[in-house]
Amino acid sequence: MQKPQLTLQEKVSYALGDAAANLVWRGALAYLAVFYTDTFGISASAAALLFLVVRLSDGITDIIMGMIADRTNSRWGKFRPWIFISTPFLGLFMVLCFTTPDWSEQDKLIYAYVTYIGLTLAYTFNNVPYSALMGVMTSSDVERTSLSGFRFAGAFLGGLFVMGFLPDMVAYFGNGNDAQGYQYSMYVFSGILMFLMLVTVVGTKERVNCVSSSSLPLSREITDLCKQLPFILLPLLAITLFFYYRSLPTFGFLIAVGISTTWVIKKLLHQPDEQRSRAQQDMVDLLMNKPWLILLAMGFLTMMFNGIKYGVIAYYFKYFIGDELLAGKYFVALLVVSVVGALCTEFFVKLWGRKYVFIIALLASAILTSALYWVGADQIGLLFILGCAAEFFAAMMPTLFFSMLGDAADYSEWKTGRRATGLVYSAGTFVQKTGGGFAGALVLVVLASYGYNGMDPVTTTHAVPGMLLLMSFIPSLFAVIGACVMLAYPIDSQMQSKMTADLISRREHFMP
User: Alpha-carbon distance 15 to 203, whole Å?
Assistant: First the structure.
């Protein structure tokens, strides 16, 4: 079996799918916090809890969707049918999320939960299969790195359209009515999203076929997974409660849950293979997969780093710089540089390998981001230079992360003979959403701690010091921690080459 070289047309087709997804993920959601507090009309603390609850619960559906996709078989493949089916719902909820009904504050909060949950569910059914598609388009780790570069170039371009032009579109369509401006703008982006996703479905192909290691019905396996959910949900609930309330009882609950979860995991790991269900075996495979565990941490930490930076920009320009529309130009500058950074990743990987490029990117971006703390409100040129330089390195992080998830799937198949590409990638999107949820919530929690109220101009001035910290030192801390974690990543270029050769040989053996 030869390692297929992907055509430029197929790489571009795949990249357009993430351009579409990031009209939502990197684009619209970057403005969702400021939309909720300053236009929709809910408090920063209520919005913070909304972000946490919805993103964490959504992460569980990522895992279920990964299992479903892994067990899907059709003439279109495992993953592309789900991209096609979910796209209209993603476009619909994108519009609904930015629609402001003339209701009471309590009813609006309920509406926000319903529509945000709908958006994240549609995104799950769309993006988990989309992410996993990379793992079956080619068996070459080199081609996966190249494909990941194209993917995130597309992602940054998609985000650029929303983040760069949304403020001006809101002003144009709203004509003084921001609620109307947001809604009409989302009509435009929703139409673009559906067209680009269709190009991805038609223009890509699934090539890597793996022998299924399960004969159980999907319904039985999902039921089995649901029995394991308390051991996933309880730790997340404990972390969320402590993060939001920061009290002694919530800290005690966090410690108790941590001890109990550790005991359950140790018991599961020592259980004989034949006594485990398929869902339990999948969990054990992941827990024994050191590269995946490290990448799990990296997905969370890098999303915290990038999510905090992007989440505070709209507030920073509106209240510190004093020019709300300039935020759009800053987003454009960042995302143009991001495209360059994503496309340059493959070049640097060939020189130093994924692991060391990841570490360099984390540290360089952290240093440059920290320097933003000392930039004055009138130093716009310096702000753009430092922000863009930091973003060049930050753009490499998701590019490396998703290409390395393919390596983690290879590692699992190489070690165990079992491969769960959808589950590996769904766990990746799960930690990204978890990190994104915590990042968005942390921005709002910090602002709320300074007394921020988007409907009261007096409180916004008092919250400026918090905005400065959120633009600089707070996200940089997560990048430095990530660099330390990445030092333990075990797969180097030599090991990757051996895994690839061994897996190709096995797949040739099982081919009819």
Answer: 10
**Predicted confidence (pLDDT) per residue in 363-420, tens digit:** 999 999 999 999 999 999 999 999 999 999 998 998 888 778 878 878 877 877 766 6
Question: Alpha-carbon distance 185 to 181, whole Å?
Answer: 6
- With both helix axes pointing from N to C terminus, report the angle between 396-416 and 105-137 in degrees, rounded to the nearest 10: 60
Task: Report how far apart, in Å, the C-alpha atoms of 331 and of each of 37, 162, 433, 447, 467 are.
Answer: 20, 9, 21, 21, 17
64 to 76, 223, 231, 422, 437: CA distances (angstroms) = 21, 10, 15, 10, 19
- Distance from the first to the final alpha carbon of the chain: 12
| Dihedral of alpha carbons 97, 98, 101, 102, sign | positive
CATH of region 8-205+218-510, choose from 2.40.50.200, 3.80.10.10, 1.20.1250.20, 2.115.10.20: 1.20.1250.20
93 has a pLDDT exceeding 90? yes
Q: Is 451 left (phi over 0), alpha (psi -120 to 50) or beta?
A: left
- Cβ atoms of 338 and 451 within 8 Å: the answer is no
Residues 6+ positions from 368 with CB-CB distance below 8 Å: 386, 389, 390, 393
Spatial separation of the C-alpha atoms in residues 369 and 479, rounded to whole Å: 10
At residue 143 the predicted structure's pLDDT band, cuts being 50, 70 and 90, is confident
Over residues 480-503, mean pLDDT: 86
Q: pLDDT digit string (tens) for 3-29?
A: 457 888 999 999 999 899 888 876 667
Residue closest to 373 by CA, chosen among 360, 387, 356, 352? 387
| In the predicted structure, residue 489 carries a pLDDT above the cut 70 | yes
Residues 30, 93: contact at Cβ < 8 Å? no
Model pLDDT, residue 220: 65
Across residues 313-336, what is the average pLDDT?
Answer: 87
Rounded CA separation 161/165 (Å): 6
Q: Is 398 helix (H, G, I), strand (E, B) or coil?
A: helix
Tokens of 70: 């892994």
Asked if 13 and 202 touch (Cβ cutoff 8 Å), the reply is yes
pTM passes above 0.90: no
Residue with tokens 């730790």: 235
Q: Is the pLDDT of residue 426 over 80?
A: no
- Rg (C-alpha) for the chain, rounded Å, is 22
CB-CB neighbours of 336 under 10 Å: 16
**Annotated domain spans of the chain:** 8-205+218-510
